[in-house]
Amino acid sequence: MHRYTRWSAFREISLWIAAVPVLAPMYFVITTALRPPGETAGSSLAPPARPTVGNFSQAWGQAGGDTVSFGQALLNSTLTTVMVVALLVAAAAPAGYALARRGSRLSGLISSLFTLALILPIQLGLIPLYVFMVETGLAGTLAGLVLVYTGLQMPLAVFLYTGFFRALPTAYEEAALVDGASPIRIFAQVALPLVRPVTVVVAVLTGLFVWNDFFIAVVFVGDTDKATLPVAVYSFVGQFSTNWSLVLAGATIALVPVLLLYAFMQRSITQGFTSTLHG
User: Fold this and answer.
1) pLDDT tens-place string over residues 216-267
2) 125, 239 in Cβ contact below 8 A?
3) Is 58:244 a contact under the CB 8 Å cutoff?
4) What is the pLDDT of residues 65-117, one digit of tens each?
5) Mind listing the domains of the chain with CATH numbers?
6) What is the model's pTM?
7) Is residue 140 within 8 Å of residue 221, measured between CB atoms?
8) What's the chain look like in SS3?
9) How far apart are the first and last CA of the chain?
């Protein structure tokens, strides 16, 4: 049985202090989402005197304006996120495996290019990319948005897979090769299952980016019925005034699917990040 000592109290106080920067924005978002419109103008740190859940139903019904409904925006975000994650895993995993197992100069050059792409801002190529999407008819479509997000997140995914594959011992692959397995079968049945932790990390990092991104979505599908959740929530931001209660109520609704997913996959996500950091 552990005794409660001064050191235990110090650690608990330190954890609470460290949690303040995380909990404070959540408190602000929830209290503002529950605050009636009349109280918003004089908002303070105090909880709302007359909390209401009407902001959530109003946000659901009015977000997106005449362009897209909140439900359609939720569906668009879900489809986009799922397709981007699936394409990234399907393309980045074999690419990372090939770069990790081949020691040629070309492989090193390609790895360097992927690393360089991590630090280049999207704004450098935004205009030519948008012109290309318009000329090919992909602008304003979910397919075009998926391709853009996949291209943006591919360097990160390949970088993570390459580093993880390089850290794996080749003994299992060599044993499978001796047994007569083909390279594709070795990758699919031996190497890929061993990098499940980094697959979880790739899915979480890229999925959160796509789900929360506003800039790319508003540029490519902003005024269409393919708009995503961040764009729909932004419809409450006016030129001269903003109803922050509705904005944060919509943001809270958009946060619920992420929290539910984390609740069901908490163990896998924790193990994935832990294994990747230790690896």
Assistant:
1) 999 999 888 899 999 988 888 775 567 788 888 888 888 888 888 888 877 7
2) no
3) no
4) 778 888 899 999 999 999 999 999 999 999 999 888 887 788 778 888 888 88
5) 64-235 (1.10.3720.10)
6) 0.85
7) yes
8) CCCCCHHHHHHHHHHHHHHHHHHHHHHHHHHHHCCCHHHHCCCCCCCCCCCCCHHHHHHHHHCCCCCCCHHHHHHHHHHHHHHHHHHHHHHHHHHHHHHHHCCCHHHHHHHHHHHHHHHCCHHHHHHHHHHHHHHCCCCCCHHHHHHHHHHHHHHHHHHHHHHHHHHCCCHHHHHHHHCCCCHHHHHHHHHHHHCHHHHHHHHHHHHHHHHHCCHHHHHHHCCCCCCCHHHHHHCCECCCCECHHHHHHHHHHHHHHHHHHHHHHHHHHHHHHHHHHHC
9) 34
Residue with tokens 């997913």: 261
Residue written as tokens 């404070």?
Answer: 24
